[in-house]
Amino acid sequence: MNKLVINTQYMENYGCAKDPYMKFKGGNTFVLPNCGELDSNEIATIVAKVRPFITTTMAESNGGCEEYIIDSTVVPHSEKVCEDWETITEFCFDQFSGDVNFMKVSDNREDGWMRDEILEQTETWTGDMSATVKRADYKSEYLMEDGDFALGQQGLKEWFTAREVA
Q1: Distance CA 17, CA 62 (A)
Q2: Roughly how many angstroms between the first and final C-alpha of the chain, as a whole number?
Q3: Domain tally, the chain
Q4: Residue 101 reports pLDDT greater than 60
Q5: Structural domain range at position 46
Q6: Triad 80, 110, 83: Cα angle to 5°
Q7: What pLDDT, in 10s, does the model give residues 17-44?
Q8: Is the CB of residue 43 less than 8 Å from the CB of residue 72?
Q9: H/E element, 162
Q10: Does one domain contain both 7 and 89?
């Protein structure tokens, strides 16, 4: 079984829209699992469908940043596609609507950037093919150190408040 891997490059503008001063700031790895064998035309078609939801232009960000696709390839399912400390975003297509569904699971257990009480964060969203909404139906869920789940920022606030953790 294979997976399609799409890598992006993210740049942030430290200048202004009129006189940009861009810095490379990493990027993202998007994976379509279980894609089977794809030829170059099929890869290009999938990338074209996903591009509006994984890239950002300078105009869209009001001159603040840009993210663009730098590579796309099909690799064996078992192949490592990023470093252990990086987080991939998996995506799939809804067979009925054609929308793109995304899921990103960030492990915070070792060297994480979130508070220690948070073990992992799962984010899901939909790219609506009939609109230009980049993240429709966005949801965020946190697995906490005691096994509880907190839904969104409000859920996190309530969890920490209930435990009197500042």
Answers
A1: 7
A2: 46
A3: 2
A4: yes
A5: 1-93
A6: 20
A7: 789 899 999 999 999 999 989 999 999 9
A8: yes
A9: helix 152-162
A10: yes
Residues 6+ apart with CB under 8 A from 164: none
Q: Are residues 69 and 124 in the same domain?
A: no
How far from the centroid of its chain's Cα atoms is residue 148's Cα?
24
Q: Are residues 56 and 119 in the same domain?
A: no
Of 150, 140, 122, 141, nearest to 165 (Cα)?
150
Mean pLDDT of 52-69: 90
In the beta sheet, which residues pair with residue 73?
5
* Domain-ending residue, one of 78, 93, 108: 93
Same domain membership, residue 112 and residue 38? no
- What was the pLDDT predicted at 131? 62
Q: Count Cβ atoms below 10 Å from residue 140 Cβ, excluding itself.
A: 17
Q: How many CA atoms lie within 13 A of 164 on its CB side?
A: 0
CA angle 46, 52, 97 (to 5 degrees): 65
The first and second tokens of residue 164, run together, are 């009197």
Identify the CA nearest to 154 among candidates 137, 166, 142.
142
User: Of 75, 93, 111, which residue sits at a domain end?
Assistant: 93
Q: How far is CA 125 from CA 28, 128, 148, in A?
A: 16, 9, 22
Q: How far apart are CA 136 and CA 140, in angstroms?
A: 12
